[in-house]
User: Fold this.
Amino acid sequence: MQVHSNQHRFAQLAALVMAACLTAAPGSAQTARQVRGAAAVEPIANEPAGKIVVDPPLAEPLSRGLVVIQYRTDNLHIAPVFGPAALAVSPRVGHIHVTVDDAMWVWADASGEPVILNGLAPGPHKVLLQLETANHQELDSGAVQFTIPNDTHPGSTHGAESRPASDTAPSHETEPPAKIIIDAPAPERLARGVVFLEYRTQNLQVVPVYGPAAVAVSPRVGHIHVTVDDATWHWADASGNPVIINGLLPGSHKVLIQLVNADHQPIDEGTVRLIIQQRSQ
Assistant:
């Protein structure tokens, strides 16, 4: 009888433990809403403040001189929607402004993808990410500081010497060559000191897919590298959104946009030369 009683108690205890686990399981895992924020299909009353959380650069790429900064936003959807009318959109939408070191200018990124930089000189650096409303008003910010190792070389591509895609990539024999076509800066924006460059690609889809294996993907995929003036470094963008730069000093400037394959090897490029006018106070 004692054995039967002990078995009965054990069965009851096991049932209680299982029930507790089943009850606790939903609460222990984050919901999609907790991770991604509110669905962009229903307005939110009394939205909490938008926030940005910025991670340190990924360690392994940084050892090769490549800066990959992941971030997330709370209470704001990153979207390429701009202007004062978009301030009334709920859930809130916005984008980020990125500043490298103590530069006077920023570029706007509305992709939600990691910030990727390459070619920075060895030594200490700082990258500031500002969370902005759709009308470019700052909501929050986060900065990361890091050091590029001495054994990397400015201007290299992901720790390797930059080389034309034709040297290493599959030939894509049935596909015509990939090209990039860049429009002139939007005049009205340029008059306000904002460089707004739209571009399109031919025979290549701009998508955030990277690495040697992706070079064999057909139709061909890739992204762009953007360099301002004579900087040794560039940023990568795989959104297909316009290149937006603000804060350049008055005077002549140039913006180089390289079309590269998924393994960051140049395929085509275009350079836009422009003049920022002195604005009256």
